[in-house]
């Protein structure tokens, strides 16, 4: 597929249900970063995916909200401030340049001048390149790998000892999934040191908290005048 077609094809578009709170259009991330084209002069064109944040607070505030519409866009107790749009540009374009171009497009097409808001930031842009691991990443991978190794070794030890009917050393069972899973997921009320009863209370609080989150959504409505969708700020 031609790169000249893939770049605009991977852009996000105005989504269905914008008035019902659907304020994000991711576009096609994989299609964008897969773009690669070598030119005769040695220049390599690659796709760069960015997630732009277009301010729409003023537009939403002026919409006349019906009861259903208000319930949809006010579930977070405040109106959405940004519309997130996935865009694809050449990797040689900086975030500052993309931000400038996007603002010029909005100014030209919608006659709206966005000065105070930065819509494209480099931290929300991605190109297809090798991952550069930080020291904290290496530490996390090493630590998690060590835990997984201990769990695997302890579980194998537990299984072999159980199968042979041999005596088990408590230290080598510390990471055993076979032994610890029984204690973690047990709900039987027995007088045994192998049961962690506080987990029952934790499960109870988790269920109550989930129910509380669902019940306590506050949907409210107000009446504002309908305005033009060209008002972005």
Q: Which structural class best describes the helix and strand composition?
A: alpha+beta
Task: Estimate the mean pLDDT confidence.
Answer: 78
Topology order in helix (H) and strand (E) letters: HEHEEHHEHEHHH
According to DSSP, the number of beta strands is 5
Q: Which percent range describes the beta-strand content?
A: 5-15%
Total helical elements: 8
Protein name: Nose resistant-to-fluoxetine protein N-terminal domain-containing protein
Organism: Glossina brevipalpis
Keywords: Membrane, Transmembrane, Transmembrane helix
Domain Nose resistant-to-fluoxetine protein N-terminal: 1-127
Q: What report would you give on this structure?
A:
With 233 residues, the protein is α+β, with helices and mostly antiparallel strands. It folds into two domains: 5-59 and 80-127, no CATH class; 135-223, no CATH class. It is 42% helix and 12% strand. It is built from eight helices and five strands. The chain has helices at residues 3-9, 29-33, 57-61, 67-73, 95-110, 135-164, 177-185, 198-215; strands at 24-25, 36-38, 44-55, 82-90, 125-127. Strands 1, 2, 3, 4 and 5 form a five-stranded mixed beta sheet that branches. The longest helix has 30 residues, at 135-164. The chain starts with a helix and ends in an 18-residue tail after the last helix.
């Amino acid at each position: 597929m031609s790169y000249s077609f893939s770049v605009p094809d991977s852009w996000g578009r105005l989504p269905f249900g914008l008035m019902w709170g659907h304020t994000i259009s991711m576009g096609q991330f994989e299609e964008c970063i897969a773009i690669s084209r070598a030119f005769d002069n040695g220049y390599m064109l690659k796709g760069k995916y960015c997630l732009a944040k277009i301010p729409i607070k003023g537009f939403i505030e002026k919409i006349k909200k019906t009861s259903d519409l208000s319930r949809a866009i006010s579930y977070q107790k405040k109106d959405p401030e940004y519309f997130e749009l996935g865009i694809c540009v050449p990797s040689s374009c900086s975030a500052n340049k993309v931000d400038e171009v996007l603002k010029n497009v909005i100014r030209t097409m919608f006659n709206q001048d966005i000065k105070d808001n930065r819509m494209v930031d480099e931290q929300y842009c991605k190109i297809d390149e090798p991952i550069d691991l930080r020291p904290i990443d290496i530490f996390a991978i090493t630590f998690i790998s060590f835990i997984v190794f201990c769990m695997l070794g302890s579980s194998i030890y537990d299984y072999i000892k159980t199968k042979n009917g041999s005596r088990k050393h408590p230290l080598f069972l510390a990471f055993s999934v076979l032994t610890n899973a029984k204690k973690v997921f047990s709900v039987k009320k027995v007088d045994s040191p192998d049961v962690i009863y506080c987990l029952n209370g934790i499960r109870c609080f988790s269920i109550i908290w989930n129910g509380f989150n669902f019940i306590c959504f506050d949907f409210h409505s107000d009446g504002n005048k309908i305005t033009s969708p060209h008002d972005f700020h």
